[in-house]
Design goal:
homodimer; 520 residues; alpha/beta; eight-stranded parallel beta barrel; six-stranded mixed sheet; elongated; disordered N terminus
């Protein structure tokens, strides 16, 4: 087979097979710049990263191309929903890594990505400078430069004086070579030419990435947990909102920002729990606030013992006057007396005999609580109802929610509900009570929670704390999960605290307040 | 706003707005299992990983769901192009990480992915065993189990005897409870039920990932570089293939597997280089073999001084007889006398005065070499021609190619050419001569090269070697880039070797042969 024969075959093949693969290749081949390993991102852009308003976002990427051309790159960004991109230049920081920084000023979502291209002028200028520096003849290079500058100028349909003049001078063979070379390499032209890029074959990183920008309290704050019924002055009976309000100056005086209330809703009577999880409450025993719902109402009602919804509104306002925000506990479960049980039995799981299943963690039984069946055939109505619970309390001035046991509800529900709510109310903050497996905790954070309880409570030795906070602060986890460090909770009291007395609480408080930006 | 009012609003909204977002959610919400962080993969599946035939591929993933259900998962795999998937079970290895292993037996490409689902039977059985173990009444659970087993049996439209019997027995309230419980928890049923999964809402990881399976020589081999014209017995003249063949037993006796030949094509006469890069060759100076092409032909011709194409064929066969494979150097560049220059001037870059540009690395000039313009308007014809050069030599028994300076040609070209060639000839092996920036070297490996020259040549201290081989063998780089460790090359001789004498060469040989699976 001779060379000539093969050439003929090639030509025939080219004419015949201009297939779709080749068309695709034709579109891609001129995009010679590779943009890869863009950071930060979560799961290839499946989830947004998180920032708070007023911060900056530094985006870095590996950017390179075949050959020796010089490159240029920008970070593109915009408010999600906007059509126009803004951009900031990226600079190389070594080993083909580039970075650029933009400010995230407003709460809401931003899109961002990276675009890189061959810097034709800079590449040409660099080669010219090396040849001219070595004293080589650059007559041909000057003509090429003239043509290049004119082409870039035409691309932009306008040009500064120096660009026009240089384009003409470089092509003027009647002028002296050294004058033309000097003009070609002038600082003035070098400063101007980045404004005339050829980005027709730029490579834009896909997919577009997103950052959720929240208000500062999503990242930073001191939380105080208060059972309002225990915040009175008479230990023989439950206190009211009005009485608990008297404690607000005390809480604020300790420097707290957020006052977190466990469920404040009517408590069921059926299978009401007495002290220490017994099923034999005395007549005055109030029951667990997490057994939500009675004849008096469900998740949008207030326990009559605490007061009325108007009392609650006044409590929220009083807290605000003292510089405290109220965080409400949202626990999606119902006591057997909850209105949902009667009105929507289809939202619960049933036994073969038709009765509704209560919560269990075998062999433990929680007869006072019915879990909600998120897979119910009537799931749309159920999910919307649950979302509206948040919206109801947002309507009453609550913008922070501590979500109870989110890991026993579908991830998709949270992603949907938090997404919908924050679209309408981007200043809403969600804290995930997920003391569960690390990857589940992280996935809930990815799905939209602003903050997560962490394993801080169980990390007590120096080695444990070092390892855990290295993970939280030095790995990509930091891009989407913000720990809220609780020293203890009503149902978690580490042996260190049980045995360590006041000094142990003090040590844990200082650790909590200094290892993270949010603590409780 | 009362609870009742809100419920009515909700119903109306549900009826009205069954929008596309909600339909999408409906499809997703039952896929409660998350499959993420699948390993190995390169850039989210953009590029295949690499293995050699006969190896196994262990795939791991984070697999979890909300709640406490037990899960099951498999690795799905198939030859690329096949429609049916095969599968191997995955097992949990702790902290919600799962893994499974499948064999890659044949060269070519395989698809693989991971699928996980709720194991309904195992979840039910686990709860039953805990309740029964605690002595609780399980009458209701047995009825649920009966219904579940029957449902799973119907899903599969067939069932083994024990499954049918257990389904019936568990639902038979006339039978003794302890007999039914024992049947429900029996090992026999537990062994059988994984054959009856409910995978209707299984989560399959996307995108499908790929592994390129090559023959063993892609991973493992000892390379010997020989200039055939220098492999004769008479130092006063260039040797021929027939003479060089006499050296084959010697090369093989040293344990080499691959005999690598620098370009064997006719060498251009224009601007032929003399010794030490001078432009004044003597009449007998052969010129650089990388100045490819003369009146006698180009990349598919043999330098007449070495012999004919038939001589080459005999040389390849002789090498094969001695257990040696020939690797050819492919350098896509042309001497000014190459037939391409005359036949396809459009494949080269031109100066404003119409002359063709020679290669330069300012201030160095390579007047004997014209680089090829891959961005030529006639790129389709050019790319096909270049691909056919490989195919020509494959037709002459060569299956290993050492590609010269691949980083000065478009990445897309390599991805396309190697992809097309290995589809037809999956036993072809490509070695990338990219001593360039690390990310460029890696991107060429991702784009399809079987092996890459590495920075081994420049890593001489213990710390340098430890750091570099940790990167090559302990990071994800190992999934797609295989180093071929050359102690030196015709144009790279590290100061360590220049100054170290024979002992230095011995030390580097031992390091090269033991730090990697391929060396030269």
């Amino acid at each position: 087979m001779t060379k000539r024969t093969r050439s003929k075959t090639t030509r025939a093949a080219t004419t015949l097979a201009k297939d779709s693969h080749e068309r695709q290749l034709d579109q891609q081949r001129l995009r010679r710049v590779v943009v890869e390993n863009v950071h930060p991102q979560v799961d290839g852009g499946r989830f947004p990263i998180k920032r708070v308003a007023g911060e900056t976002l530094t985006v870095s990427a590996d950017i390179h191309a075949d050959g020796h051309d010089l490159l240029a790159a920008v970070v593109l960004y915009r408010r999600t929903g906007a059509t126009e991109w803004r951009e900031v230049p990226m600079t190389p920081i070594g080993n083909d890594r580039w970075q650029g920084t933009f400010p995230v000023e407003a709460i809401g979502r931003y899109d961002y990505t990276v675009e890189g291209w061959i810097d034709r002028f800079a590449s040409w200028r660099y080669e010219l400078s090396k040849k001219a520096g070595a004293g080589q003849d650059v007559a041909s290079e000057l003509l090429e430069g003239s043509a290049l500058i004119r082409e870039l100028q035409e691309l932009h349909a306008t040009a500064a004086g120096i660009v026009q003049e240089s384009g003409a001078l470089l092509g003027d063979t009647a002028a002296a070579a050294d004058v033309r070379t000097e003009a070609a390499l002038s600082d003035a032209l070098q400063r101007e030419m980045p404004g005339y890029p050829d980005r027709r074959h730029a490579t834009r990183f896909e997919p577009v990435l997103q950052v959720v920008v929240e208000r500062e309290r999503a990242r930073f704050g001191a939380w105080y947990e208060m059972f309002p019924r225990s915040a009175g002055t008479d230990p023989s009976r439950s206190a009211t909102f009005n009485e608990a309000a008297l404690r607000l100056p005390y809480v604020r005086s300790m420097g707290f920002d957020v006052l977190y209330l466990p469920p404040i809703h009517p408590i069921g009577r059926s299978f009401r729990k007495g002290p220490n999880n017994t099923l034999t409450p005395g007549p005055g025993d109030p029951g667990s606030p997490w057994a939500i719902g009675s004849e008096e109402g469900g998740h949008t009602a207030v326990e009559p013992g605490l007061g009325t919804i108007e009392d609650f509104d006044r409590f929220v306002a009083a807290a605000q006057d003292h510089g405290l925000e109220i965080a409400l506990d949202i626990a999606f479960q119902a006591s057997p007396d909850h209105p949902y049980v009667r009105e929507h039995p289809e939202w619960f799981r049933h036994r073969p005999d038709g009765t509704i299943k209560y919560a269990e963690n075998p062999p433990k039984k929680y007869q006072d609580i019915y879990p909600i069946n998120f897979d119910s055939l009537a799931w749309q109505e159920l999910w919307r109802e649950l979302k509206q619970i948040f919206e109801f309390w947002i309507g009453h001035g609550v913008k922070i929610f501590r979500v109870d046991n989110p890991h026993t509800k579908p991830y998709r529900f949270w992603e949907w509900a938090i997404g919908e709510i924050t679209q309408q109310h981007p200043d809403t903050i969600f804290l995930s009570e997920a003391f569960t497996r690390p990857k589940v905790m992280r996935y809930l954070a990815k799905s939209g929670f602003s903050q997560s309880y962490s394993y801080f409570t169980w990390r007590t030795t120096k080695a444990e704390l070092t390892e855990y906070f290295t993970e939280l602060t030095q790995t990509d986890v930091r891009e989407y999960m913000r720990p809220n460090l609780f020293a203890n909770t009503p149902d978690i009291l580490h042996a260190y605290l049980q045995d360590g007395g006041r000094a142990a609480f003090q040590a844990r408080l200082v650790l909590a307040a200094t290892l993270g930006a949010s603590y409780g």
